[in-house]
Amino acid sequence: MIEVKEIRKRYRRRNVLNGVSFTAAKGEITCLIGTNGAGKSTVLKAIMGLTPVSGGTIHIDGQTLMPELYEKISFVPDHLTMPAGMKLSDALRFMADFYDSWNEKRADELMKFFRLEHAVKIGSLSKGTAAKFSLVLGLGQDSDYLLLDEPFSGIDLFSREAITEVFTSDLIQHRGVLLTTHEIGDMEHLIDKAVLLKDGVVSQSFHCEEMRSEEGKSVIDVMREVYRA
Amino acid sequence: MNRYLKLVHMEIHRFRWILIAMMGITAIFQFSGLIWTLKKAMAQFEEQKIQGSDTRKYFDSVPDTLTFEWAMSNTQMWFILPVLLCIAVLSLYVFFIWYRDWMGRHTFIYRLLMLPTARHNLFLAKITALLLFVLSIVAFQLVMLPVQELVLKLVVPAELRSESHIVDVININQALVELIPRQFEQFFYIYGLGTIAVLMLFTAILLERSYQRMGILYGILYLAGCVLVVAAPFLYFGLDSSIIPLYPMEIYVLVLLLFFVVAGVSVWLGSRLLAKKITV
Amino acid sequence: MNTSEGWTEIAFNNRDPVYMQVVRHFKERIATGHAKAGQAIPSRRELGALMKINPNTVQKAYKEMEDQQLIVTEGNLPSRITQDTHVLSQIRAELLGSAVRDFLQTVQKIDIPIDELLLMVERQYREMGAKHD
Questions:
Q1: Do both B206 and B115 map to the same domain?
Q2: B158 plus B225 within the same structural domain
Q3: What residues of chain B have any CB closer than 8 angstroms to a CB in chain A?
Q4: Contact across the interface for A192 and C20, Cβ inside 8 Å
């Protein structure tokens, strides 16, 4: 379980996060929803230790972040984070070199599934292809948690479909997935739990199916209530 | 440890083309300068022989027999320019070795910070890589010297040349004499000071990366602070050694100690910034 | 044999629990004869991928269907649609019942005598049947 408690963050004299708390459980897909600039990416970066927070705590399975945990938790940012001069094969080699939890066989399967070529330079990838390769790097690790920043934004329809397919596959079974989005779109039925971020705090956090059974509201209905108010 | 070495390897791998290019340029400059100079000297010999007089067409004075030492003293610029170029490139790379990870569409720093290894290894790997670049260029220069002597032997006939000692050859060149010290102590000073300066800069860069605009100020203040610490004994006692109430050896140890303090603090602070304060 | 044949994506509405919609989809297929008694159904993962929904939701739907004895799972074999005729006829009755209820709710607003309504239903039902033949 990823537990985020009361985290705060100031950036350029603005309180981006004002005490954000939520949890993301293993075996579930949790979606962090918020308008652009609501600080969704900052939350993910804070969990991954890529940016300091000015208050609050973050625990992953009860532990605070330490280098060894990077074997257990992988992050797919909204852009590819390998040097442009590397070939795809170099990047895979790099991952295999540095991560004990790297699963070469799975990475190969994913490369085939996304039809990615090993000899291509990273700098020459289109946005959709880069997003797919980014996902290969994230899923190639046998990690317990997977964090994805806007995995569907700005990429073509077919890349979206391919990525959606990953979400319903056994690739993410038993993992805890935390992803961000600013529009729920076709993800409505993919996610277990929604966490709505507004004005630097969590204004709603619910399991989608419970919300539907108990209040007869879709995620979009709740979003309307939260963001239109 | 293992991942530290892998990181060093990766840093070297990323720089390899620039390193090879610098070595290539150095070799081209030095060899062409040497050959050109020797050819000129030979031509002057020829003319002197034909005209029987003391012509000074190319060189004011050409000795009776050519030595490597003479050739070196007459090719100063050809040797110094590429060395200066290498120094300039490496100095810029002190900054670029960090900033390149934040630059461009694919910011590698995300990945580096997410490696399952203590982050001070990033810091240490980068400083190690830079040191290795410097040492490999110096080593390359050292290896080139005997090759250049061989070139001299090939170009100049045996009766027109005489042997010279490699130490004299290095001494006569203003750049080489600084780069290739003949005593370990000197080597230690030059490269030790250089390393400490780079460590200070690394930490200043990380201050900027951690605190953005305010970080620039912090970085500059940090550098100033470091200089102040090292210069403290001189500021305190003044430069006039006759009135300093310490033996020279004591001053020496004191300054050395302060350098170690600055190096230690830089590594500690840099690692801490990487672990706690850095932002992507 | 490919168990995933015929199970395509369905248009879910966002407001009803998705697992209930999956259960309903199964019931409809059984009632209409698209899914035969005893037929193997896709695994949870296959169905999740086919319908593009969260595997946990499919899991919940299968659990619900097992509770309602709609499907049976024995050991590691794929789940099958029940052969219990009692349950099957119950599904049919349930679906018909709810369809009739929906229909009546709409019709109730229009004040129409039951005889007249039944006549209309009968006539239209025959016409539809004629078109189908």
A1: no
A2: no
A3: 3, 6, 10, 14, 104-111, 113-119, 210, 276-280
A4: no
CA gap B9, A146 in Å, rounded: 28
Nearest to A212 among C15, C52, C54 (CB): C15
Beta bridge partners of A141: A102
**B161 lies in the same domain as B28:** yes
Q: Residue C113, class by beta-carbon neighbours within 10 Å (0-12 exposed, 13-18 middle, 19+ buried)?
A: exposed
Of the candidates A69, A6, A11, the one whose C-alpha atom is nearest the C-alpha of residue A41 is A11
Smallest CA–CA distance, residue C89 to chain A, in Å, is: 27
Provide the residue range defining the domain that includes B4.
1-180
C54 interaction partners in chain A (CB closer than 8 Å): 29, 167-168, 189-192
Residue B237 has pLDDT above 80, yes or no: no
Chain B environment of A69 (Cβ under 8 Å): 116
- Residue type (1 letter), C109: K
Q: What is the pLDDT of residues A199-213, one digit of tens each?
A: 899 999 999 999 998
Judge A/C contact: 3 or more CB pairs < 8 A.
yes
How many domains are contained in chain B? Answer: 2
Residues B174 and B42 in one domain: yes
Asked if residues B255 and B239 have their Cβ atoms less than 8 Å apart, the reply is no
Does B221 lie in the same domain as B168?
A: no
Report pLDDT digits (tens) over A144-169: 999 999 988 877 888 888 888 888 88
What secondary structure does DSSP assign to A152-220, as a single string?
Answer: TTT--HHHHHHHHHHHTSGGGTTSEEEEEES--GGGTTT-SEEEEEETTEEEEEEEHHHHHHHH---HH
Q: Does residue B236 carry a pLDDT above 90?
A: no
Collapsing DSSP to helix, strand or coil, A121 comes out as: strand
Q: For residues B125 and B241, state if they share a domain.
A: no
Facing A82 at nearest CB: one of B3, B106, B276: B106
Calculate the CA B39 to chain-centre distance: 31
Contact between residue A196 and residue A226 where contact means Cβ atoms under 8 Å apart: yes
Alpha-carbon span B29 to B40, nearest angstrom: 16
Q: Which of B122, B149, B180 is the last residue of a domain?
A: B180
Note whether B201 and B158 are same-domain residues.
Answer: no
Do B19 and B8 lie in one domain? The reply is yes
Which chain B residues contact residue A70 at CB under 8 A?
114-116
Instruction: Check A79 against B113: CB less than 8 A apart.
Output: no
Q: Which residue of A has its CA nearest to B212?
A: A12
- Mention every residue, 6+ apart, whose C-beta is less than 8 A from residue A222: A194, A196, A204, A206, A211
